[in-house]
Amino acid sequence: MNRRDLIKTAPVALVGCAMPVQAETETPVAVLFREWAAARATEAATYAATDDEDEHNRAWDAAWAAEKRLLAAPSQCAADVLMKLAAWSRFGADDSEASSRHLAPVWAEARALVGPDLPT
What we know:
Elements lengths: L2 H13 L12 H22 L3 H20 L5 H12 L14 H11 L6
C-alpha cells in the first residue's frame, strides 16, 4: 500500500474510532466534568449577579474544587483526557496561545465533542 492508498482509506478507518463523549454509561470523569461545568456556570452567574467579593470567592472556590476532583479522577478513555484538558484550559481560553488561528479549530472540535453549551 502506498501513501496515496493510505490517505484514501484514512477517513474510513477513522469512522470506527468515532465515539460520542456522553455514552450510555458515563465514566466517572464525564460525571465530574458535568459537575465542573455546572460549577463554572454558577460561578459565571454569581459574577454577573453581584459585586460581592465574598460571593465571588465562594463561587470560584466551588468551581476550583470541582476542577481538582475532575483532574484527580483516573481517565478511562481518550474522551476523559479531552474533557480534563478542556476544563483545565477553559477550552483554550486560559492558554497563552488561545488566539492562535491554528488552535481555534482544535478547541472548536473539543467544544463540539464535550458540549457546546458549556461555559468557558
